Amino acid sequence: MQGDLCSGVETDGIKDKEKIKKVIEIVRQ
């Protein structure tokens, strides 16, 4: 169970980073 929760948090973190990168790119434009 703990492994699944950890992996879920990691994937969510990656998605958040990708969203932040997209926002930064839009702001720079």
Automatic annotation (TrEMBL):
N-(5'phosphoribosyl) anthranilate isomerase (PRAI) domain location: 4-25
Species of the source: Eubacterium ventriosum ATCC 27560
Any Gene Ontology biological process: L-tryptophan biosynthetic process
Source species, domain of life: Bacteria
Pfam families in alphabetical order: PRAI
Taxonomic placement: Bacteria, Bacillati, Bacillota, Clostridia, Eubacteriales
Protein name as it appears in the record: N-(5'phosphoribosyl) anthranilate isomerase (PRAI) domain-containing protein
Keywords: Amino-acid biosynthesis, Aromatic amino acid biosynthesis, Isomerase, Tryptophan biosynthesis
Pathway: Amino-acid biosynthesis
Database matches in InterPro entries: Aldolase_TIM (IPR013785), PRAI_dom (IPR001240)
GO molecular function: phosphoribosylanthranilate isomerase activity
Keyword presence, Isomerase: yes
